[in-house]
Design a protein that fits this description.
The protein is of the alpha/beta class. The chain has one domain: 3-Layer(aba) Sandwich (Rossmann fold). Helices cover 35% and strands 20% of the residues. Strands 1, 2, 3, 4, 5, 6, 7 and 8 form an 8-stranded parallel β-sheet that branches. Helix 7 links the parallel strand 6 and strand 7. Helix 1 packs across helix 9 and helix 4 crosses helix 6. The longest helix has 14 residues. It is globular, with a radius of gyration of 16 Å. The relative contact order is 0.20. The structure holds adenosine-5'-triphosphate and magnesium ion. The site of adenosine-5'-triphosphate has 18 residues, from helix 1, strand 6 and helix 8.
């Protein structure tokens, strides 16, 4: 399957993508991960390099508007993790990835600023409309399943529940698992990721499995 990690602007995507990839690798289901860096800033790819994060899986550079013809979503328990650029600035790449994505994770902080750029941007297309316009170009004829991941949350802050509700009102599914604001995650890019399964990202993998968003057990044969 292919998981597209997306957002209109800087929202913690690459950090989340690096950690979630490792939590998948560490999971008991023996997922295999292959990374694609579809952002011109190349930070996912750069983080993976031997002299930096030394990732145990490859990350390919793929910031291409022909992503959908160049990359075949893998089968079984092989998971393509795609770190996307800003949909605000690189809509053609986003449109291409959305043609083949099995799951979209929309990354955001529970803030008015991120909510506005996703739902009511002044100078761009609302993310919901980007998803909707992918439908006719997809094999299913429907937009890809999409889940919001709230990140950089602050313990006991009302913002987490408030924006979970606001995104639900917009029609989005929102993961129960949230990624807390922390120095460990915030300063992790460029260094190895260790023990991801024991963090909120491990809890996220468990939630994704429970929700049927990841292949488990004998489901290895299908996407
Ligand atoms: N859980 C976290 N806690 C604290 N800081 C975080 C966390 N996740 C990300 N950050 C910080 O937020 C900033 C943005 O993160 P990141 O670069 O991953 O976002 P991005 O969406 O990939 O941005 P861009 O689209 O510009 O590449 C960085 O300074 C990062 O260190
Ligand atoms: Mg990034």
């Amino acid at each position: 399957m292919l998981i597209a990690n997306m957002s209109p602007r800087t929202t913690g995507k690459t950090t989340d993508t690096g950690w979630l990839s490792h939590a998948l690798l560490e999971d008991a289901e023996d997922y295999e991960v292959v990374g694609y860096d579809a952002d011109h800033s190349k930070q996912f790819w750069s983080w993976s390099r031997p002299e930096k994060g030394d990732f145990a899986f490859p990350v390919h550079l793929q910031a291409s508007a022909k992503f959908h013809v160049e990359v075949a979503p893998p089968m079984g328990k092989r998971i393509a993790m795609v770190d996307c650029g800003h949909t605000e600035n690189h809509i053609f790449i986003a449109d291409s990835i959305l043609r083949v994505a099995d799951l979209v994770i929309l990354h955001m902080s529970p803030t008015a600023a991120d909510w506005e750029r996703i739902c009511e941007p002044e100078t761009a297309k609302p993310f919901k409309d980007i998803l909707a316009s992918s439908a006719p170009l997809r094999a299913t004829g429907k937009p890809p399943e999409t889940w919001v991941l709230l990140n950089r949350t602050v313990a006991n802050a009302s913002s987490t529940g408030y924006y979970r509700e606001e995104m639900s009102k917009e029609g989005y599914s929102v993961f129960s698992t949230v990624i807390p604001r922390s120095e460990r995650f915030g300063d992790s890019m460029g260094v190895p990721v260790e023990g991801a399964a024991k963090t909120a990202f491990g809890a996220l993998v468990t939630e994704m499995k429970k929700r049927g968003l990841l292949p488990v057990g004998g489901q290895g044969a299908s996407r």
